[in-house]
């Protein structure tokens, strides 16, 4: 008999853990993830319910070389910063970032209330992440974890 597949996402533990090295880690700890895809044992793509508190950001502005990302604003109002500038997204709005475009992006909560995003991304092998505004680069390792270096390749 198959296991039940339904679950309440709010029962999944929230974590503000990040793989970012110092000095870039602290700026990213005002967002909290519930790793829904991992809970459902998905391997081809990830699904996170991300809560960003006022003043927080989803990540540093970044672009993926091989992974697509899709974001749905579940609750609140959030600033989306991309290479084209800043725009405000509200609950019910979406954004997509195709792999390889180089369009660096992040979400910043400039409101006085928590923002809730549904974040979906694939897990393509060989992904690299560029960060245009900070001295950091990431490469997806064979173990599925990102290895962070400075842009010149030296470690932290």
In brief, what are we looking at here?
The chain has one helix spanning 36-39; strands spanning 31-35, 45-52, 63-64, 69-75, 77-82, 85-90, 94-97, 106-108, 115-122, 128-131, 136-140, 146-149.
| CATH architectural category of the domain at 20-125 | Sandwich
| Strand residues, percent | 35-45%
CATH superfamily of the domain at 20-125, by name, is: Jelly Rolls
Bin the helical content. Answer: under 10%
Order of helices and strands: EHEEEEEEEEEEE
Using DSSP, what is the number of strands?
A: 12
Distance between the termini: 48 Å
* Low-pLDDT segments, ≥5 res: none
Give me the secondary-structure topology.
Layout lengths: L30 E5 H4 L5 E8 L10 E2 L4 E7 L1 E6 L2 E6 L3 E4 L8 E3 L6 E8 L5 E4 L4 E5 L5 E4 L7
Antiparallel strand pairs: 1-2, 2-9, 3-10, 4-7, 4-9, 5-6, 5-8, 10-11, 11-12
Task: Describe the overall structure.
There is one protein chain. The protein is mainly β. The protein has a domain at 20-125: Jelly Rolls (Sandwich), CATH 2.60.120. The chain is built from one helix and twelve strands. Strands 1-2-9-4-7 form a five-stranded antiparallel sheet. The radius of gyration is 16 Å and the shape is globular. The model has no long low-confidence stretch (mean pLDDT 95).
Keywords:
about 160 residues, mainly beta, Jelly Rolls, five-stranded antiparallel β-sheet, four-stranded antiparallel β-sheet, 12 strands
